[in-house]
Amino acid sequence: MKKFIFSSISILFLILIGSVMAGEISVGSVTPLTGKLAVYGEGFQQAMLLAVDEINAAGGIKGNTFKIVFEDNNSTSKGSVSAIRKLITIDKLPLIFGPAASSNFLAVCPIAQENKTILLGAESAAAAISKCGSYVFRVFPSDLLQGIGVAELTNFLEYKEVVLTYVNNDWGVGLAEVFKTEFTKAGGKIIDELPHGEGKTDYRSEILRMKSKNPKAIVNLTYIKEGATILKQAYETGLNVQWLMGSASKSPKLVELAGKASEGVIGTYPTFSQETSQYKAFKTAWDKKYPGKKTPIFGEYNYDMVKLTALALQSAASYGSDDIKAALMKVSKGYIGTTGDKSFDENGDVGASYGRWTIKDGNITDYK
Question: Which of 54, 139, 159, 207 is most buried, most CB within 10 Å of its CB?
Fold first, then answer.
């Protein structure tokens, strides 16, 4: 009987020790799973979970299971603030993946900085994010680079005069300002400029104003749903121009929603090689986990963000935000992910080169 009791206690002790040694390491994520940005959010989440699967299959973080705690922000700044406060104060997580849309990201970065919580983004591009603080990073390039890329595209196509329209939020305004500076500096002229509301279903009044200027080209810096609605309603109105767009519109969903009205659109996007071993491994893993699904817009960036975070957690001296931050800076140097070099500069930004895309025969392809 005594031997049985001793054995039972020993087994219980080993179970308890095992649970401590093989626990969970969690980070948070403010993700648009509902609301107007949910068209993106599902793909972001799927890409992040693919990375999590691979990390855990390789042994997790120091023997612990890696986990992401997702909080839906309903695609709004208010929802983003509520979500990050919950992840910081209740879940007490030292690192959080920030929300899509620069306005949402900018709403939460002061909270992260104040609480010394690392905030890491994979798609928010506003130039102002570079000034958020030392606890804020992003694996997606700043609009300072994309604005230059759109201006270079416009000049390359030899459009000297354009109408400029952009979604009226922090991301759209910031990107438009960079484009205007670069385009006019090169001798270009903006014959009309009009912001358009986010999430509207009718842009006919804006389209009629654009049409009245008789432009040959319109630079439209916007999102998928807004972009598709504008293209479709412009087509129905008989506005026949060359549409020039940015990376946030580069999605099969744009073609699905706008149909033939999207044919011939030309845009820019942060480019990376699909011939690298890193990209091929990602694509193989994606097709295995999500058969028949196309890789989502910015999916590769979300995947890289999680993989880089895991490397930092693995090498960090502790689970404290300062130690993780130091590790994040260190492991990023020379790290080549699916989307290329993820080395952070002093502002927590990464570099990029820009490619050009177009829609031809209903498919998105490189523009040459």
Answer: 139
